[in-house]
Design goal:
The chain is 30% helix and 35% strand. It is an alpha+beta fold. The protein is rod-shaped.
Length: 397
């Protein structure tokens, strides 16, 4: 029924009151009905807008459950955490090659034995060794004989017993024989002949069949044993042992592109062989100029102290490299970072109206108990660092 019908013919009322109602009152009722409908729509609009924003409003009492942090730019020193493999310090490790040919007759040391410089490592039945000793004995005898003849001819020449030319030739023969003697002695030294054996030869004492002995050229620990009894050695080419000083080792750490710019020569480092183990101090002394084509990483060599020989070759370790170069960024406490359903990091940011809103951030680097945020925040922003779970609970209500 439209408005005109109501004005033209009021509905019947048994009491007769509506029929005699003033026209103005009826007009007021008609005007109120549309306005009531408008009022209902207006009340629901703010609620819909609030639901779309998703911000959280807390009362004063509820705000007591949260703690805020003001974001600011700061300087810090990065700590690059990576993995590495322990190796011998090649500046203090020596590969012992066979100095002579022949079959191995006996091994004198075992892996892990501590040896001194000149200590016996193995015995070899070597014809080279016997030949070298015989050559030295002959050269020594020849040199002595020629020297005695040269001295005798010199005396004769002074008393005109022989021609000066003969005396000069005898002197030349003596010098040549002494040179051969010295060369033969040097050959024995290169074969690591026992000094007592050499002394016995020089003094003319008889010697027993001297065994060819492979000796350690340096003091240290036998870390590799590469030969077995009966194995035939080739002089100058067969590796027999590795002797290393294990008080210091190399750790080859793998550093990737984003972290490489923060690593420099001389940076201090900690080497951790286990999760709960004590770290070993070291420093960066070499950065490779090449990239590993398989891992796309760069090898960074850390020289680490190794008291007690705890670090072993081929051991996997964690490496913490502390950069001396300062980095700039916005550090926020780790406690302020939450994760959404897609595992993306976010914080609760305080808006200008006092509400709390989710703000996704990009985490670049963790420095201890702080994160360096590269995007999502700016200096001066306030975020929740304690009570974020409470705000998230209120948001999900």
């Amino acid at each position: 029924m439209d408005n005109k019908s109501l004005l033209a013919k009021p509905p019947a009322d048994p009491s007769g009151r509506l029929a005699h109602a003033p026209v103005a009152a009826i007009m007021v009722m008609i005007a109120v009905l549309p306005c009531a409908g408008c009022s209902s729509k207006s009340d629901s609009a703010p609620q819909t807008a609030a639901a779309m924003t998703g911000n959280v409003m807390l009362t004063s009492a509820q705000r007591q459950n949260v703690r805020l942090y003001t974001v600011a730019s700061s300087q810090y020193h990065r700590t690059i955490e990576t993995t590495g493999i322990v190796d011998f310090d090649n500046d203090q490790a020596t590969s012992v090659l066979a100095p002579f040919s022949g079959p191995v007759s006996r091994l004198v040391v075992s892996l892990g034995d501590q040896v001194k410089k000149g200590s016996a490592l193995a015995e070899v039945d070597s014809p080279d060794f016997a030949t070298a000793i015989g050559a030295y004995r002959k050269a020594l005898a020849t040199a002595r004989t020629n020297r005695r003849l040269a001295d005798l001819d010199r005396d004769l020449a002074e008393h005109h017993g022989i021609a000066q030319r003969e005396a000069d030739q005898a002197q030349t023969d003596a010098v040549n024989a002494e040179a051969d003697r010295d060369a033969a002695l040097q050959a024995l030294a290169s074969l690591n002949v026992n000094p007592q054996t050499i002394k016995d030869i020089q003094e003319g004492r008889p010697i027993s069949s001297a065994a060819a002995i492979i000796r350690s050229p340096v003091a240290g620990t036998v870390v590799e044993k590469l030969i077995t009894p009966g194995e035939l050695l080739q002089a100058g080419s067969t590796p027999c042992f590795t002797v290393a000083n294990l008080s210091r080792v190399w750790v080859m750490a793998q550093v990737f592109g984003s972290d490489l710019a923060s690593v420099g020569l001389g940076d201090s480092a900690d080497v951790l062989p286990g999760a709960d183990s004590k770290g070993f101090s070291g420093r960066v002394d070499n950065i490779s100029a090449l990239v590993d084509p398989d891992t796309r990483s760069v090898a960074v060599r850390v020289v680490a102290e190794n008291p007690g020989n705890t670090l072993k070759k081929q051991m996997y370790v964690r490496v913490l490299i502390r950069a001396r170069q300062e980095s700039a960024g916005m550090l926020i406490p780790v406690s302020g970072i939450l994760r959404d359903d897609e595992n993306l990091p976010f914080v609760y940011l305080v808006r200008s109206d006092g509400s709390f809103a989710r703000q996704h951030v990009t985490l670049r680097y963790r420095a201890g108990d702080q994160y360096d945020v590269s995007s999502g925040l700016k200096p001066g922003d306030q975020i929740v660092i304690d009570g974020g779970i409470f705000v998230q609970f209120m948001q999900n209500q």
